[in-house]
Design brief:
- The chain has 176 residues and is an alpha+beta fold.
- It folds into 2 domains: 32 residues; 129 residues, no CATH class.
- The chain is built from 2 helices and 4 strands; from the N terminus they run H-H-E-E-E-E.
- The protein has a 4-stranded antiparallel β-sheet with strand order 1-2-3-4, with helices on one face.
- The chain is elongated, with a radius of gyration of 32 Å.
- Bound molecules: calcium ion (CA).
- The site of calcium ion (CA) has 7 residues, from loops.
- Calcium ion binds next to loops.
Length: 176
């Protein structure tokens, strides 16, 4: 019996050589590109770092009581609120024992520290500054004008300055 060789079709030598040649040219650059992509460090922009530093500090500040005189049982009366000229830390207080929001007024740190006063690594060229002041708030919705008298609203303004970025974060807190 004779096999019909016409139906048995393999690759010719020129086809094999052509395939190997094309593979040799195309595949190495693709592998190199993949390796470079996998080894490339993740670059986080200065603005994102600044935003993260601002958010962290805002969270810490908001966790404090509204005023030195606040007891956690509700709003306090005007007569015992910290006067605008006295907004800031009380005698003997340092960062690790700040206990109310306005202790952070005029606070500045370079490099940034965490709530325990420990320097946050990788942010040595960043500065965080905080301003706290009374605003009208409420129905007036004036959250930008600094008042010279007490009110039921304090504004927190955080500015983070980095080598190539500036981030500002604001919040309003009410007498609680
Ligand atoms: Ca305090």
């Amino acid at each position: 019996m004779r096999k019909n060789k016409k139906n048995i079709r393999g690759f010719t030598l020129p086809e094999i050589i052509m395939t190997i040649t094309i593979g040799t040219i195309i595949i190495p650059p693709i592998i190199i590109m993949l390796l470079v992509a996998l080894r490339a460090p993740v670059v986080i922009s200065g603005a994102i770092k600044g935003n993260s530093l601002a958010s962290d500090l805002m969270e810490e500040i908001l966790s404090k009581r509204w005023d030195e005189a606040s007891t956690g049982t509700g709003p306090i009366a005007d007569g015992i609120k910290t006067l605008p000229v006295d907004l800031g830390l009380e005698a003997g207080e340092t960062r690790i024992n700040f206990n109310d929001i306005d202790d952070f007024n005029n606070y500045s740190e370079t490099p940034p520290q965490n709530a325990q006063g420990i320097i946050i690594t990788d942010f040595s060229d960043y500065t965080r500054k905080v301003e706290i002041f009374y605003v009208e708030g409420g129905n007036s919705e004036d959250y930008d004008t600094e008042l010279s008298n007490v009110s039921n609203f304090k504004k927190i303004l955080i500015t983070v300055t980095g080598p190539n970025s500036t981030n500002r974060l604001e919040a309003i807190t009410s007498n609680r």
